[in-house]
Give the backbone structure.
Amino acid sequence: MQYRAEQIRKSGKTIAFVPTMGYLHRGHLSLMVHGHNLADHLVASIFVNPTQFGPNEDLSRYPRDLIRDTALAEEAGVDILFTPGEKDLYPAGFETYVSQTALPEHLCGLSRPGHFRGVTTIVAKLFNIVKPHFAIFGEKDFQQLAVIRKMVKDLNFDVEIIGAATIREPDGLAMSSRNAFLSETHRKSALVLYRCLADAKQMAAAGEKDPQKIIKTCEAAINAEADTVIDYIAICHPDTLADVAAVDQPVVMALAVKVGSTRLIDNLMLFPPGSETL
Ligand code: AMP
C-alpha cells in the first residue's frame, strides 16, 4: 500500500482516503463518494482496530462481511481497498502510541478509557501508509473528528481533514454498523436518540438558553424508552468539547446511550435564534 501510494504521488496524482472498520452502510459510502469526487485516486481501508476497544467491549462480535464490503466499495468508486491483518499493523513488540491529552477528557473518552489513544494511533499509522492528500471522516463520530483534526494540526500531518454529514435512516436513526445488533424492539427504542436531539434543536431555536433544561428533557425522553441506559448527554463547544454554560452560540449536543447491549452515539448542532448556521 505504501509503495502504491508513493507511485501515485510521484505521478502527480492526488489520493483521498476513507478509513473504516467495515460492515459498510450508506454513511461510509457517502464518505467514499465524497472522496471519489475530490481526488484522482480513492483509497478506503477496512480494519477493526483492536487498540480502540476496551477489554469489555464488542471487538470479537463486531460485525464483519468483507465480500459484501468489497462489492459496495467498488460501486462507490474505491480504487484501492486496503484490508490489513491485525499482525500487519500490530506485529509482536509493537510499542509506540499516539495519545492526546485534552479532547479525550470529554464525552466518549470518559466512558471508554484508552479508546482515543487507539484511534489516534491507528489513524496516524494509516496516514503514513496511505499517504493521502485528503481524509474524510463522518460527523457522526463528532469527537473522533475533533481529535483527528487536532492530531493532524499538532503533529503536522500533511493531509486535509474533511468532515462529512451524518447519514440517517428515513426515520432518523443515524446509520451505524452496530445497528445490526438491534432487535426490533431495541431499534424502536433507539429512535429516541435522534428524536430528542431534534427536540433539543427546536428548544434552542425557540430561545432556550439553559443547557440543563434541554438535557433534562432529553433524559426523560430516553428513560421512557425500553432497555435504555444513558451513558452521557452533553451540550458542548464544538472545538473544545467542554460543556457550555449557556446556549448562546452554535453548540453541539452529543449523547451516548446503551440500548439493550448496544452502545449508540449521535449528535446534532444546536443554533440559538439569530446565530449563523455552520
Ligand atoms: P466506522 O466504520 O464506524 O469506524 O466508521 C468509519 C467512518 O465512517 C468514520 O469516519 C465515521 O464517522 C463514518 N460514519 C459512520 N457512520 C456514519 C454515518 N451514519 N454518516 C456519516 N458517516 C458515518
Remarks:
- The CA atoms of residues 45 and 82 lie 4 Å apart.
- The chain has two domains: 2-164, 177-272.
